[in-house]
């Protein structure tokens, strides 16, 4: 039970990667706040995970772009369990357009969810972690933190930005034993990606099978999707690594799509 007695907040954990990470943490004994826009789904996920145990979970309503909502959500977790040891800033969406056609409102929405969300949750958790004598902050980056793809300018910009935030948090957090790292997954079959398959097929004029084979997995070493479990394992590793030896880093989990 690597995370026994630890308290974690995972944003966007009502679905996909966030849920998988929350589940892995509960398996290791953690108390996990499922922080999500969708409170009904967050509560349902929390009930499910508490049943699985041995840790437990609660649902927390949180729009990560709203400072008051973030502060209230983090305060609720601190009031419930007395501390916050791990923050996983994971909530995210995808919006694709050519740059010259990218609606400014969509650009701002993307940067708000990915970057403002990461900043606001970090800002709210740091004082608690300082007081406790340490903590782990994990950002959900992407292979798109490292390279670009057409139509994804806002996503690529935001995911690159997370590397800068993580490195800054590592430098400022060091004296307080607050570690900060980024996970950079390749394509994982979550609702976010399932939605993109027919969209890309239509935009590119190819079949859905070709989107998967060529666009999503064409540059992997084995044509395979990264799984939620793969990413959750890395999130567990970062959460359980207790010294400043590993901070300010990013790990790519992508079946060799991007190698550096
Ligand atoms: P998902 O759609 O399954 O889950 C995203 C969750 O975020 C949803 O529960 C949604 O309600 C929540 N959310 C959205 N906006 C929010 C907001 N403003 N405040 C709080 N919660 C909000 O998607 P996923 O694939 O699990 O993606 C999770 C993260 O992983 C994202 O940051 C995404 O960019 C990143 N990622 C995904 C993949 C992939 O292939 N699926 C690859 C690399 C990185």
What's the CATH superfamily, by name? NAD(P)-binding Rossmann-like Domain
Q: Which ligands occur here? A: nicotinamide-adenine-dinucleotide
Order of helices and strands: EHEHEHEHEHEHHHE
* CATH first level: Alpha Beta
Counting structural domains, the number is 1
Query: Could you give the order of strands across the largest sheet?
Result: 3-2-1-4-5-6-7
Shape: globular
Report on this model:
Helix 1 (16-27) runs parallel beside helix 2 (39-52), helix 4 runs parallel beside helix 5 (153-173) and helix 6 (191-204) packs across helix 7 (208-216). This protein has helices spanning 16-27, 39-52, 67-81, 104-132, 153-173, 191-204, 208-216, 228-240; strands at residues 7-11, 31-36, 56-61, 86-89, 135-140, 178-185, 249-253. It has one domain (7-187, 227-253): NAD(P)-binding Rossmann-like Domain (Rossmann fold), CATH 3.40.50. It is α/β, with parallel strands linked by helices. Bound molecules: nicotinamide-adenine-dinucleotide (NAD). Nicotinamide-adenine-dinucleotide is lined by residues 11-12, 14-18, 36-38, 62-65, 90-93, 113, 140, 142, 185, 187-188, 190-193.
